[in-house]
Amino acid sequence: MGENPQEPAEQAAGTGQSGGAGSCCGVSGCCGEIEQSLDPAVTVIEAKTSAGCGCVNEQDGAAELPVVVIGAGPVGLAAAAHLAERGQEFLVLEAGDAAGAAISEWGHVRLFSPWRYDTDAAARRLLEPAGWALPDPDALPTGAELVRDYLAPLARVPELARRIRTGTRVVAVARRGVDVTRTVGRDQQPLLVRTVGPDGAVTDLTARAVIDASGTWGRSNPLGHSGLSAPGEDQAAAYLTGPLPDVLGRDRDRFAGKHTLVVGMGHSAANTLLALAKLAKTAPGTRITWVVRSASVARLYGGGDADGLPARGALGIRLRAAVEGGEIELVRSFTITGFTSPNAGPATGPVNVVGVTPDGERVIEADAVVAATGFRPDLDMLREVRVELDPATEAPVRLAPMIDPNFHSCGTVPPHGERDLAHPETGFYLVGMKSYGRAPTFLMATGYEQVRSVVAALAGDRAAADAVELDLPETGVCSTNLIAEDQLPGASAGVSAGDGCGTSCGTEPAETPAAVTSGGSCCGGSAPEPVTIGIGAPAGLGFATGSVHGYSGDSERGDN
C-alpha cells in the first residue's frame, strides 16, 4: 500500500486507463505499485471500479480487493497494523463511533495485566515513529486508559486512519453472487460484506479476505438455565444491567440504597460485587446478593496468596472476606427459572427472581439484576459463509480442543495460528474473542498472535504464518481486577520490560518470554518480538490457579 500523498495526480495520468486526465480512476499511481485512493473514505479498488478503470478485470480485481477487518478493538487494530506493515490493501469496519468503543463501555475497570503486555508489536512499530511511547510498563491501565493511550493513537496513525470506517455495522458476510449451498466456482468469487452505515444506508463491499474480530461484547448469555432465557426475562429487561456497570461512578444512583442481585461466577461478577460492597459502606440500605448455579465458588476465589498474579489473588481474597464477613449474601446452587415483574414498563418496584435450590424453590426480590453470565458470538451474520464450528464451544473445530473451558484456563491454551483458524470458506477467519466462541479462556496476547499468523498467510508468507509461538504462564492473565492501586502489588520501579513476566506472572522472577519469530517477514526487520500477554473480553473469563484448570475445578474444595 503506497504512502505518497504528495505525488501529483498528473504524474499518474496518461497510463491508458479510463477515468479522465488528472484523476486516473480516482487513485494516484494508477495500476502501479504506489496506488493510493484520492478519497480516504474508499479503497483503491472501489475507486477504480466506480470510475470504470480499464485495468480492473475479474482476475486482477480479485487480487486488488481489500482485506476487510471487522472490529476496531485491540485485535482488529493489530490485524490492521500487520496488514499495513506488509503493504496489503485493507479496510477496518467498526460499529461504534470510535476505535475501542466496546472497551470504552467498561472503561472504569482496571486490567490485571500491566502495560508491557497490553500492546501488539506491529502496532508499536507504527506508533513509535510518531513519538508514542509505552506508558509505565508496570502500571495497570483501566479500559479507558487503554483506549486513550493506545487504541485511539493507533487508529490515528496515517497508515490506519484512512482505512477505518466507524459507525459501520456489519450485518452479513457472504460470497458475491452465490449462497452458502453453491460450490461450483465458489472460490473464484470475492467475499461480500454487507454493512449498515450511520444513516441506515446499506452498502455491499467486496473483499479478497475477511478477518472477523468483532468480539462478543453486547451478546450476553441468558440468565436462565440450559443456555436459554428464563420465562419473563425479556419482560424484566428494565431491571437488568450489563455485566460491568459503573457502580461507583455513572451508575451509582441505580444501586445506592437498593438491593442488587449479581448473577455469575466470573471476574465481571467479582468486580461488581466488590464495588457494591464499597458502595454499601457509604450508602445506607445498599444490599447485595450473589447467586451462582454451582455448589462451589472455589474457581473464582482462586489461589489467594499462592496465585501467580498477586492482583488477581488479592481479588479472590477480598471477595471471600466480603462474603464471610456478611457484606455479600452468597446463594449457591441457585438456578433461575423465571422472573415476575410488577409491570412491563420502567422499573417501579422490585422484580421477583424465581429459582430452584436443593432446598426447593426460592424467590429473591431485587431492585436491579447484574447479568455477569458471559457472552456468546453473533453467528447470524455468518449464515452465508461456510464456517466449521465445534458444536460445544462454537469455536473453529481445530481450535476448540485447545480452548475447551472444561479442561483449559487462559494460561493453558497452547499456541495456535492461521491453520487452526481456517474455515472451509477460503479467506474467512474468526479471530480474537469471537474465535473462542463461548469459551471463556481468551487472552489478548493470543489474539495478537492469531492475527500476525493470519496476515502472514494472506501475504503469502507461509513460513511466518506457521511459526506460531506463545509462552504463557500457567496461571495466565485472564481478566480484570478492582484494586485501588495502579501498580502491581510488589512491583518495583526498577523492573524493566526485559525482565520477563516479573510480578505479573509468577511469585519468582521469570525468564524472558519465548519469542515469536517473524520468519522472513517484510514488516520492518526480522528480529524476534516477545509475546505480549494481555486481557480478553471483560466478562465470563476463566480463572486459572496454576493447579486446577477449567470447569473441572468447580468441584475442588467444595467447602468454599
User: What is the number of beta strands?
Assistant: 22
Average pLDDT score: 77
Task: Report low-confidence residues grouped into runs of 5 or more.
Answer: 1-23, 56-60, 304-310, 473-550, 552-560
Structural class: alpha/beta
CATH topology label of the domain at 67-218 and 376-466: FAD/NAD(P)-binding domain
Instruction: Give the biggest beta sheet.
Output: 5 strands, parallel
The radius of gyration is 25 Å
- The largest sheet has its strands arranged as 6-4-3-10-19
Q: Distance between termini? A: 57 Å
CATH superfamily of the domain at 67-218 and 376-466: FAD/NAD(P)-binding domain
The proportion of residues in beta strands is: 15-25%
Shape: globular
Query: What percent of residues adopt helix (DSSP H or I)?
Result: 10-25%
Quaternary structure of the protein: single chain
CATH architecture annotation name of the domain at 67-218 and 376-466: 3-Layer(bba) Sandwich
Task: Give the helix tally.
Answer: 16
The first-level CATH class of the domain at 67-218 and 376-466 is given as: Alpha Beta
GO molecular function: flavin adenine dinucleotide binding; monooxygenase activity
Region (Disordered): 1-21
Keywords: Oxidoreductase
Protein name: Thioredoxin reductase
